[in-house]
Structure formats: C-alpha cells, structure tokens
Amino acid sequence: MKRLAILLLVLAVGSATATAQDKYPSKPIKVVVPFGPGSATDIVMRIVAEQMRPILGQPVLVENKPGAFGILAIEEMARSRPDGYTLQIGNPGTNVLTPIIYKKKFKIDYDKEVILVTRLSEVPLVLGATIKDFPPKTYAEFITYAKANPGKVRYASVGVGSNNHYDMEAFAKWAGIVLTHLPTRGAALPSPTISSPATPTSRCSMRRARWVS
After folding, report:
1. Whole-model pTM?
2. CATH code at 187?
3. Which residue in 23, 35, 38, 127 is deepest, having the highest Cβ count within 10 Å?
4. At which of 68, 95, 123 does a domain end?
5. Under 8 Å between Cβ of 51 and 19
6. Residue 151 Rama label (left phi>0; alpha psi -120 to 50; beta)
7. What is the pLDDT of residues 92-138, one digit of tens each?
8. What residues contact residue 7 under an 8 Å CB cut-off, 6+ apart?
9. DSSP-assigned states of every residue in 152-180
10. What's CA 94's distance to the chain center, in Å?
11. Beta bridge partners of 88
12. CATH classification of the domain holding 90
C-alpha cells in the first residue's frame, strides 16, 4: 500500500492584497519549517529554495521552528507582516490535523488567518521495522504477526497527531490490526527506539528509514 506525505506551502491571509501594488518579490523571502534541520520537510524546502532563487531573483531563506506540533512555525508565519514575504511549509500533520486536534492551543484563528497556497511536494512513506528480534520481514508477515499479537506490537512516531501517527493508525485500521503508539520527539533525529525490540516499527520517510536496522 503506497503512502505519500504531501508537503504544503501556506501564508498569512491578506498577503495577496498587501503586495498587489508592488513588484513581488523585491526582497528576500523567508519560509518557516515546523521541523528541525535534516527532516524530510526541511530537505525538500532547501532544495526548492535553491531552485526558487534564480527564478525569483531573490534569496529564499529557510528557518527551522520545530515544536508544539507545528504551532510555533504556523504562528510565527501568521503573525508576520501580511506581505507575502514570510511563508510556511507543512504537511497534513501540521496544517490539517494540528488545527483540528490542538485548536485550543493556537493563539490565532487558523481558519481565518492562514491560507494554503499550493501542494509543493510528495514524500514517500515506508513501513520501517527493525531486524533485531522482530520476526516479520514482509508486509504480509507483519500483518499476520500483529494479528496474532494484538496490541503488543509498538510503533514510534514524532508525536500525537503527527502525519506518521495518523498514517500508521489508518494502516492498522485497513489491515484489521491493533498497534500500540509510542510518540518520540523530533522528526530529524534517528530514534534509537525504532531499532529496538521494544519499539520495532514506524511509518517514516525514506530519509529517516535509513536509520532503522
């Protein structure tokens, strides 16, 4: 079952009208990333930023603002001057699930103050599993093993309500299995828990999957 993490580019409402009379862009553009350096979202944005520079004729600066399920990055973008020079990149976890699950944690009105600009990229997600004392070696074997051990197979994610948390639960429902969720901290760091029998699996990007053994 192929799964993709969709990356979105968003900006504060009011930016379009604020720059309508100016030649845009006339100065550097900043893009706020809700994850740390080295995360899949960060890597994609830095690649895109390099391609944007010669096209726009202006530098595109990438600023990492991880934490609070993406709220810190979203609010920094939303509180900036609405002139189109501060954008934010996110995924369905930060910009779809977070505004629903953690609506009360926001200090802004997400629905009124933030607008999606475009779908920027798609990042393949894989089911990574350790080979240390964990029998399954294929998708089918994993499902069979999980059905025989309901609730005993644990998986890691970067946090409650994150993109890979939602995707793993959707996979479990589709497969008819019960898994136990153990959230970790940070999308950029290779979590040692994913390489241990205690937490043998995770739905993750191809970049992070190389740390699973």
Report:
1. 0.78
2. 3.40.190.10
3. 35
4. 123
5. no
6. left
7. 889 999 999 999 999 999 999 999 888 888 877 788 888 788 899 88
8. 41, 44, 45, 89, 90, 91, 119, 120, 121, 122, 123
9. T-EEEESSTT-HHHHHHHHHHHHHT---E
10. 6
11. 10, 32
12. 3.40.190.150
